[in-house]
Each structure stands twice: as C-alpha cells, then as structure tokens.
Amino acid sequence: MIHSLFLINAAGDIFLEKHWKSVVSRSVCDYFFEAQERASEAENVPPVIPTPHHYLLSVYRHKIFFVAVIQSEVPPLFVIEFLHRVVDTFQDYFGVCSEVMIKDNVVVVYEVLEEMLDNGFPLATESNILKELIKPPTILRTVVNTITGSTNVGDQLPTGQLSVVPWRRTGVKYTNNEAYFDVIEEIDAIIDKSGSTITAEIQGVIDACVKLTGMPDLTLSFMNPRLLDDVSFHPCVRFKRWESERILSFIPPDGNFRLLSYHVSAQNLVAIPVYVKHNISFRDSSSLGRFEITVGPKQTMGKTVEGVIVTSQMPKGVLNMTLTPSQGTHVFDPVTKLLSWDVGKINPQKLPSLKGSMSLQAGSSKPDENPTINLQFKIQQLAISGLKVNRLDMYGEKYKPFKGIKYMTKAGKFQVRT
Amino acid sequence: MSGNGLSYSEQGGEAAPELGQEAATTTTPSIPAAFGLFCSDIKKNEDLKQMLESSKDSAKLDAMKRIVGMVAKGKNASELFPAVVKNVASKNIEIKKLVYVYLMRYAEEQQDLALLSISTFQRALKDPNQLIRASALRVLSSIRVPIIVPIMMLAIKEASSDLSPYVRKNAAHAIQKLYSLDPEQKEMLIEVIEKLLKDRSTLVAGSVVMAFEEVCPERIDLIHKNYRKLCNLLVDVEEWGQVVIIHMLTRYARTQFVSPWKVVEEYSEKNFYESDEEQKEKDQKVKDTYTMDPDHRLLLQNTKPLLQSRNAAVVMAVSQLYWHLAPKSEAGIVSKSLVRLLRSNREVQYIVLQNIATMSIQRKGMFEPYLKSFYVRSTDPTMIKTLKLEILTNLANEANISTLLREFQTYVKSQDKQFAAATIQAIGRCATNITEVTDTCLNGLVCLLSNKDEIVVAESVVVIKKLLQTQPAHHGEIIKHMAKLLDNITVPVARASILWLIGEYCERVPKIAPDVLRKTAKSFTNEDDLVKLQILNLGAKLYLTNSKQTKLLTQYVLNLGKYDQSYDIRDRTRFIRQLIVPNEKSGALSKYAKKIFLAQKPAPLLESPFKDRDHFQLGTLSHTLNTQATGYLELSDWPEVAPDPSVRNVEIAESVPDSFGGFTCLLSSFFLICSDSEDTEKKKKGISKKITTSNSSDTESASSEESSSDSKSESDSKSDSEPGKSRCTTSSKVTTQVSVPTKTHELLHRMSGKGLAAHYHFSRQPGIFGDRMVSVQVTVTNTTDHKIENIHIEEKKLPSGMRMHEFSPIECLEPAGSVTVSVGIDFCDSTQMASFQLCTKDDCFNVSIQPPVGELLLPVTMSEKDFKKEQGMLTGMNETSTAIPVAPQNSTRLVVIEKLVKAANLGVVPSGQDNIHRFAAKTVHSGSLVLVTVELKESSTAQLVINTEKTVIGSVLLRELKPVLSQG
C-alpha cells in the first residue's frame, strides 16, 4: 500500500525518507513541490496529488509535510489516517514533533517506522505495543545508554501484539494506582454581526490518564448519557454494553489515551459563554478607520472565563493599527495583517476592551467586508453541555485506585462576524 | 567519535590501520576543498567499516546508528554492505534490527552479498519463539532477490500452517511481497491464501484479505465459505484490517445479492436499456417480493457498530458500504458519523467532504438536517471552503434557500476572492434549480455588478449571462445596465459575456447595440482574443438584423479581423464574411445566415462538478481524483437474480481449520452453544475475554486455536468434566450431518483393549499436519473404573513411503472420560492399512487404520470450463465408466450432491446442465486430479464416469460410488 514516506520541511528540504518496498527516487517529490508552489499557502496544498506513476498523499502538521507515495488504488483516508497516526506517535515519543526532534532521534524514528508498517501495510500502530518494542528516549535513559551501552530496543518481545487486549501492555505495575479523566468540551460557533447565533455545536472528548496495575476492568457511567448524540470510542470500549446500558465498560490501555469523543445533540440549545461588542468602521474618504472591541461573559454558570485570546485577520488595505487595551497585550503584524490580543481573564466588573484607530493605505478603497473575529477561551470546572460523570468502578483487581475527574470547556472554532 | 576512541584504546590489534587513518586526516586540509570533501567521505565510511568489524557491540551499534542516519537522509551507503551483512547474526537485538533495516534497503542492489544472510533467517524460521519466527519471515520476504523465491515460497507455506496466528499474519504479508517479486507464483500463492482465508484468528483476517485483494481479487469464489466468518469477526479485527475487509465485502456483496433498492427507482433507470417487455415484467415480480438475503443483512448489521470507530478510514469504509449496499431508507444512518469526521484534520475533511458532495447530489435528504455543519468559516483553507459551498448548493431547496442566500451574502464579501467567485457560481446554480428565487438571485447578482472587485463583477456577469439565457423575455434593463459596464470592466471573460448577450438580444436593445459595436470596433486591436471573437459575432448579428446602421461598422471590424495575428480570428472572420455578405459565390447558405446566427439556443445547464463522480466507488482514490487509478476494481452492478446462496453454507467442522484434538472440539462446541444461547454478534469477544480473565495467559489469541501443548492440561481438565464431554460428542454429530461421513470406524474394541476403547473417523480437514497428510480424528474412551495413563503410539509398521504424524501422548484419562485427538497419515494414495500400536502405561494393542478411497481425496473448486478442459486431457486409459441404476428419490440435484459428497471428499463443480453433475478432487499425496461425472438418464439409470491418472484409485472409487445412488 504505502511505498515510501518523505518528510519535507517548510523550506522544501527532504530531511527523511523511508521505503517499505522498492526504493522510489526522491525526485517524485518534484510533483509535490510543483503543487506547493501553485497553492499560495501550505494548507492549500491538495492532500492527494496524482503523478504519472505514483500518487502522493500528504498531511501537513507541525510545519512538516508527511508525504506518502503509493502506487495503486487504496482508500485515501486509510493513508491519511495512518500518517496522522505516525505524527501522533512521534509526538507521544518525543513530546513535540519537530524537524529538529526527528533529526536528533533519527534512529528511533526509523525503528518505529519499521515496526509500524510491513510491506506498506500497518502492523503495529498502538502506542502501548510500540513502546514495548522500542522504548522512547528519555534524558535518563540516554545518559544510561551512553554509559552502559544498552539500547532503546526492548529486549522482551511484544507479547501485547498477540493478546486479546492488544492495546494494553502486559505486566503493568505502579506503586500509586491512579486514574484521571478529563472531560473537555469545545464550542464551535458562528455569531453574526448583531450577536445572534448562526450555528453552534458542542464537541466533547474524554481524555484519560490511567496508571493502574495489572488488568483492571473499568466502568464509567454518566448522570445524563442521553446528552451524547454521536460517539466514537477507543477500541477498548465494549460497544454492546454501551448500546444496551449506556455505560462505558473497558480494559484501559496503559497511560494517556482518548477514551471517547462525542457530539452533543443539536436539539439542545447551546449556551454561548461570551459575547463580543464590536465597532469596526472604515471610511471611504479618509485613510483612518475606527476599531473597538469589548469582550464580556454571558452564560458562564458563575465560572470565570480565562485564557481569552482574540485574533482577527485584517483586510489587506490596513497598514498599521494604534490600539490601547484595557488589559492584556496585543500584537499587530503588518506583514500578515494578523491582529492578536491576549486578554487573559475576564473580570465581569471591568470588561476588557481594545480601542484605537487603523491607518489604511492611501488611495485604496474601503474594504467591503469587516474582518471576522476568532475567539479562544477556557472555562475550568464546567462542561457546558451539562454532562456529568456519575461513577467510576474498577473490577478485576484488588487494590483501591485513586480516581479523579476534571471538567473543562474551551472554544473550538468560535467566530464572530462583524 | 567517542565510540571510535573507545575501540581504539581497547583494541591494540586495530591500532595500525587507525593510525594510518589519522595520518590521512592531517593531510586533508592541504588539498583542495572539493577533493577534501570527497576524501573525508571515503574516510568516514572506512572508519564505519572498522567500527563494524570491532568486537565491541557498542562500537558496532554506533556505526549502525550512523549508517541508518545516512540511509534516512537518502545518502548512499551501499558500499558498506559487506561489512554490515556480517552482523546479521549479532546477539544484540538493536544491532540486529538496524542491520535488518539496512538489509531491506540495499539487498535489491547487492543481490549476491544479500544471499549471505539468508541462512540466518532460515535458521530463525525454526525458532521455538513465535515472534522470532515471525520477524525472520518478515525480513526474509522483504529481501527482494529473485533467486530466493523458492525459499520464500517454502517459508510462506510452512508459516501459513504455523500454530501461532502472529506468524500466520506475517505469512499473509509475505504473500504480497513474493507476488510483487515474482507474479509467476500466483497459482501457488492463491492456494496459501485460500488456506489462510479459512483462518479464524482476527489477527490474520485483515492481512490475508489484503493479500487476496492484491493477488487474486477476481477469485471471488474463495470468499463464499468465509463470508459469514469474516462478517462475524469484523468487529474484533484491528482497524486497518477492517477497512480492507469492508471494501472487499462491498465488492463481494454487489455480485452475490440482488438490489435492495426500490423498484421504482431501479426501474426508471433501467428501462432505457431494456427492450424486452417480458424481462421487465419478470423483474418487477422479483422485486415486488423482495426480501433481503440474511447474509446481506448480516453484513449490514455487523458493520454498523463500526461507524463509532475512532478511525476515520473505518467510518468512511462503512459509510460507502451502506451507500452501495443498504436499502435507501437505511443509508441515512451514516450521515451523522460522516459529519462528525468534519471535526478532524484538514486532510480528512477534504476527503470526507468530497464524498459527501457526491452523496448529496443523489440523495439530498441524507444531509439536509446537517446543513449548518457545512457553513464556511473564514479560517478554513480555500479547498475546504469550496467543497463546503458545493455541498450547500447541492442541499439547497425551497425551504432553506432564503437562509442559504443570506449566508452566501457573507461569503461573497469574503476577502478570499477566489472563494467569493465560487459563491457567485453557487448562487447562479441555486437560481436555476429553484425557480422561486431566480429573480431574487438575479437582482442580487446585478447589485454585485457595482462591486469594486473586478473578479467578483466578472464572475457575476458570466453567471448573469447564463441566467438570462434561461429567461430572456423581460430583462432588457439588465442588459442595458451591463452595456454600461463595458466601459469599465477589463476581465476578458466578462467582456465577452456582455458582448454575446447584447448580440443575442440585440433586437431588445436596438438603440444601444450599434453603439456598443462602435465602441468596441475602436478598441478592437487591443482586445483579448476571446473578446475579439465576440465582437465579430456581435457585428455579424447586427448586420443581419440592423444592416442599415451597422453595415459599414461590421465591414470595418471584419477588415480588422482579416489581418489579425491570431489564425483563429482570421478564420472566423473569413467564415462570417462568406456567410453574411451576399456575393455570387456564397450561394444558398447566406440565405439562412439569420437562422444560423440567431437560432434559439438551449440554456446552459448549471451542474455540479461532482455529478459524474458517482460511477466510482465512494471512498476510493479514484473517486477523489475523478480518474481511474491503477488497480481500481470496478464495483459491479447488482445481479438480476441472486447466485446460489447455499455456497456460503459452511460445515462447522471446517470453520475451525486448525483443530487440535479435544480442546478445539470443545471450544468450537463452546461457541456453538453460546451462539445458541445469546444471539449477539460480539459473542466471541465476550468469550475470549472471559477466558483471559479466568486464565491470564495472554499468548492465547481471540480464538485460541493454537498452542496445543500449553493448553493441553487445561483441555484435559475440561474434557474430564461431564458437560464438556457431552457437548463434544453432540458437536461432532452436527458436523457429520453436514458433510463429514457419519461413519466412525472402530480402532480398538473395549474388550480387546482392556477397557480402553478407540474409534476414528475422517475429519476431512486439509493440511493440518502437512500437505500430504490425511487427518484422522481418534476418540479414545476409558471404560474402566481406574485411570489410564500415558496413552501414546508405538511401533508404526507402515508400508514404504507412508508417514504418520502421531498425537502427543495423553498423560492421563479419567474413568468414563474420553478425549479426541488428531493424527495425520500420509497414505501415499493407496488404500493400504496403516498399522501401529496404541499403548498405555501398561499395555500395547495392535491396531490399524484403513482408509476408504473417498477419504484419500481433497475437494477442488474449479469452473465447468476448466473441468471440461481437464477431462479432455484425461481420456482413454485414464477414464473408467459404468452405468448404474438410480433409485427414483435420488434423482434430484441436491440429493445427488449430498450423497456423493458424503461418500467421497469431492468438490462440487457448478454445472450448466440439470442432468449432469460434476465433482472434482485431487489425491492428497500426489495431487493428481480426480474428476467424477454423473449423468442422469431416463428410466432411472445414470452414467458414472471417473477420469484420473491414478487408475487404481479411479477403479476403486468407481466401485465404491456405484451403490451410493442406487440405494434409497
């Protein structure tokens, strides 16, 4: 399926190549560079590019293009999903997935890639299994390795690959047994000029960090499972149990993983926790424009809104902006025309605002659209949909684990049109 | 360099060459830079070679790491091959792995040297550890050296019957590698695939289906027997395997089931092609009484939970399956999951949106409730924006058009002008599709004509032109407005569109049109070719309708055109002149000039660019590219009449190919009972989980059919328990009813065996102990009141050439307990007895097994055509035949097949004629074909013909089959 993989950085250098079948010359990437040139921005490069003998499927993440070369018909999502899995694995291994990191750990990268695909077909993609085969580098281990000459390659064999629960490694032992679950909800919304909601939906995930000894069997139940309209599970979740009882029952992988992602049904009205008052105007005659934004809390259930960042892509005609914020810091990049205002916490008594003027290119006409405002924010200890975990039980092991649940609401793609 | 220094200090023996190297380093600065670079490169490799030859693992490892670094950067490291390959047998796992990596990369270039490593892998293939066996096979098969094809073939064959499912999985991968190396091996590989398809392990399923798709996707007949198993295993297969299996099953289902789609829809599409009235009526009748094949339902039911997968590829695969296979009323369930994927990365969005675009053209209703999920955000990349717009346009209808148009208004103002232009196109499409809003849209577009951005204006003009064409009657005003625009607008397409409009409707704007021609005649030389053509057109049309005012102008334009640089324009000018200016030569044609130029033109149809993509299977690369990709497999149309559904019936015994004595027998009956008691599709998962929780040995895979030795003690303890035993016997009865002969033969009577009794029967399972072995199930029962210990086989007195694979000794058999074990015997295609001693701790008993000739065969599937071809080659000496009487109740096809298959292990060959039945098999040992034909004649007789090289077997078989049909 996947013939070869090329990693290309922002400057257009191929800094890693790996082949699973016969070697494909790196000149095949020329077609990719061509397409890259045609697309103005990196994210406009088409993910599928046909060439006379091959097809190039690429994903763009962390400023790196992962380009897979394939030779014949294959579901494109298969390859794309796999490439994303590769990026996730690198991130899992090295903390960040960057060109420098990959170059520094090129041997580990190569070993991991070797295990992930056999003849271009995915072999081991579960991070639990991979980590058993090839241990991720840590500072301590690097030091120890240089002194003792021992290796990163696990000396025991990956028995997990053969078990019924392939996602969990065997022989897990902890002195402190803990299981943490983060319920994180993101609001995607488009708000129109007048402040009314055009579309709003809530997407949630439950991320877990489970460090439990042995083979624990967990069940997680909700107070109001009906809220969950559409769900997708980690393979460990027993689907039948969910169908019949609306309970999540699973033997967890070891470490961090995403247990569940869900969509809250569209019937429920979505509470919008913030509002933006804006007054942005360009005048036809003068080369000055007015700019004023105020951000305030709306339905926050008494919680504070923090981590607020306002960004806006200004029209091309804007040369510079002179603004004064009532709190936080702001930056305007005159090249990319991107305004970014890091607000911080919203104090309901004293609403943060950003006021000032814009200088426009002399002679250019007034832009016909006001810029849209993108908002980021966080609200701790609140799941905006009202989802609540009822209880978490463990079977199959004797000890008493420490359990913790955290809720958080974030802005997803939150846009205000002006 | 620290590693180097280390080896240097510790190895006096190597000091000398290193010193020499040191000297080289000192000389480098003095020579020219380019040469120095080259030189240091050579030197570096030298030093790597030294490190590889050192006896310290750490130095070797260091060197290997640097070499892999070079490989990763794409630098050529092939000259190190001899030094690297020596380390293939290293004890250090990491060195070994890195050597493997290197080997796979360069073996193709250095074939001769690569051969040095082969023996290491061959040895590892015999390793007791399954993971080492697997990885040896993996590397061996990845070395692309044609000389080792036979070795690979052998290794694959062996691995495909390995006890470990993990090794078998790797064998499936190796099949594809061997196939791409040497396509000649196809036939042999298909045999292995056939064998592995029968595997029950979830580990193997995905990989073998992948191999099937790559090697022999046309052999759909191999799937029949495994169809239900694959459906049931699907939930437990790893996600990548799921995608491949689902795609394959989609293709399969389209060839095997009849269409579940509504008669009416089918009908209106079809009747264009069908001239035959009768056929239609018949069709109708069939569809009126449509009930879904239970197997078809099974597939839909078992794939549905996978919509909840976290893997976008799986969700997409299930969606396309529902789209192509489910009744239209059920396909709707996939839309929610597809919309969920839109939250994913940009690349996933791109593919999913493309597929939704195709779906939304045909079935609007599916995505209408999710309209707002396709609203465009200013941060989306342009390609995502355009796709979303496309879908919004497809979903537009009377009810939602007003909201949509309001949304479109914001898009038109977008800073992304390319997207704004696409929006205008979309508005145009909405306007033509929904007549209620045509006027509103038109007005909106006219407003856009005063937009400052030229691209927007130009696009509006083009769209307006198309809209006006659909209803030109009362739009004189708009045309006038556009004529005014001509002064300012510079985009060629827009100018051309305006000119065409004025020319086409010049009679509606009689005063303006000549003036426009005057203006453009002035600027003619500076115009774009596209515009020039339209000026000529306008001139011609005006000449015909209003020659008084425009005759001179037109001639002026035509003269300009005559000397234009572009031959297209010169050509057009000549053509127009001949047509409209009457002279002697032009003759009859110019009379019709007006009709030619001012004919009623059909309005252009504004269509989705995704209209023509639906002939590709959704979710495929070809669909994304809208061209057929290499290796694309066409999805066939539904068959008119479903092929025989009974081909998917499976005998339970065969569904557990690797049976190992009592344990598997027990296990399969365990499944059987569970499937009776709880009707769930995930039953296997549940059970396997139960097993692991009760017994934490994790080497047992989901269906735990392997590791007989490990689990033997367990199996013994289970078989001792009373219920276990009874289940075992019932299940074997079930199996015998289907195809395995009911007949059990006595091996040892309890009287002569001092209380130990043994029976045997032929289980007809191919290739457990090797290709040439017939497998025999021996049931040993203890009828005494004390334990019998250490039951085993001794003193085999076999005729020459015969071989026997014994069962591993049974340590202990409780009173009244019984155990079933398998032995494999290679009878060398003769009916001679295999004699041996069945021994216990205290006694030995002489026993023997004599095979009926029907059990020395293995069924073969072949087509009728192949059968006839083979039969043609086996005539004369090789043919035996006789006429036999047939009992009247035996004359139907089903009975004949049932009786013959019971009597001998034959494979049924599909037959075109009702009265002729054909069966094919091959002998177990030598693989010679045995072809059996039964031709039913009138007056209850039949002609029985057997063709085979093995004349002895042929005649014995004839004798044995004779009474089968005559008995009632």
Gyration radius from CA atoms of chain A, angstroms: 25 Å
Task: Record the strand order, biggest sheet of chain A.
Answer: 11-13-9-8-23-21-16-19-18
Taken as a percent bin, the fraction of beta residues of chain A is 35-45%
User: What gross morphology of chain A would you assign?
Assistant: globular
The CATH homology group name of the domain at 69-246 in chain B = Leucine-rich Repeat Variant
Main sheet: strands, sense, barrel of chain A: 9 strands, mixed
Distance between the termini of chain B: 89 Å
Radius of gyration of chain B: 39 Å
Strand percentage of chain B, roughly?
A: 5-15%
Figure out the total of helices of chain A: 7
Which architecture of the largest domain in chain A per CATH? Answer: 2-Layer Sandwich
How many E-type strands of chain B?
15
Please name the two chains that share the biggest interface, counting residues whose Cβ lies under 8 Å from a Cβ on the partner chain.
Answer: A-B, 103 and 110 residues
Write down the CATH topology of the largest domain in chain A. Beta-Lactamase
Biased composition (Low complexity) (chain B): 689-706, 729-742
Family (chain B): Belongs to the adaptor complexes large subunit family.
Region (Disordered) (chain B): 1-24, 683-744
Subcellular location (chain B): Cytoplasmic vesicle, Clathrin-coated vesicle membrane; Golgi apparatus
Supply the key terms.
heterodimer, A: alpha+beta, Beta-Lactamase, Immunoglobulin-like, 3 domains, 42% strand, globular, B: 968 residues, alpha+beta, Leucine-rich Repeat Variant, TATA-Binding Protein, six-stranded antiparallel beta sheet, 15 strands, elongated, disordered N terminus
Task: Provide structural commentary.
- The complex is a heterodimer of chains A (418) and B (968).
- With 418 residues, chain A is an alpha+beta fold.
- In chain A, 17% of the residues lie in helices and 42% in strands.
- Chain A has helices spanning 29-38, 76-94, 99-104, 106-116, 127-133, 139-148, 239-245, and strands spanning 2-8, 14-19, 48-50, 55-61, 64-70, 117-118, 121-122, 178-191, 197-211, 217-222, 228-233, 247-250, 255-264, 274-282, 288-297, 306-313, 318-325, 329-333, 338-344, 353-360, 373-380, 389-395, 402-416.
- The longest helix of chain A is centred in the first third of the chain and has 19 residues, at 76-94.
- The radius of gyration of chain A is 25 Å and the shape is globular.
- The model of chain A has no long low-confidence stretch (mean pLDDT 85).
- Chain B is elongated.
- The termini of chain B are far apart.
- Helices cover 53% and strands 10% of the residues of chain B.
- Chain B has 41 helices and 15 strands.
- In chain B, β14 and β15 form a beta hairpin.
- Classes of the chains: A alpha+beta (418), B alpha+beta (968).
- At the A-B interface, β2, β4, α2, α4 and β7 of A face α4, α6, α8, α10 and α12 of B.
